[in-house]
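Extended Data, panel c. Modelled sequence:
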Amino acid sequence: MKRHIPNFITCLNLFCGCLGVVYAFKGELIFASYAIAIAAVFDFLDGMLARVLKAYSEIGKELDSLADMVSFGFLPSVIIYQLFLQSPQVGELSNYLNYSAFLIAIFSALRLAKFNVDVRQSENFIGLPTPANAILIGSLPFILSDGNWFLSSYILNPFFLFIFSLGMSILLVTEIPLISLKFKTLNFKDNLFRYILIISGLLLVVILKFAAVPIIIFLYFLLSLIQFRPR
């Protein structure tokens, strides 16, 4: 039975993604973003339990990617699409511009397929992980709900949303090596950049709340570039 436990947790991740899509299409983006957050917890737990229980399987690996495609690929695309619809429409151009939101889904699929066959990503990532991208997108409805006019004016700008969707799509498949939060040991020296990222992230969230998420993603890239800089 124990080898099925991680797969059950993965299915909960998928279920959250499905619920999130329903909420997103109904325009209830806060609930859709909560679904991403809960799915991310399940995504972390299934990997951890697979390691603890030594319950690895090819089915589990493929199931994880399929669940992630819904929760961290399609669902974020629907959220961006709904933000496009809430933005001022730019004549006939918006009929095409709005659908650029689904670049996130396409490039998330490419990212996940690439991850499954790329042997270089056993310890660290190459390209932005889909959960990190989804959490960033999931933070946008919360930032809007805080009523920050300055940030809202950017988030609900169709041209910003287009550039954002295109940029994040490229980052998903870029060849930049990035830090993984998988700890092999708790040794501080071996995990220096991981600890800096976690501690800084927690402090930023306490100070800035949801507006901290974009800064944390930027910090994630910056620390990764420092750690993996050519020597």
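The chain has a mean pLDDT of 90. This feature is highlighted in the accompanying rendering.
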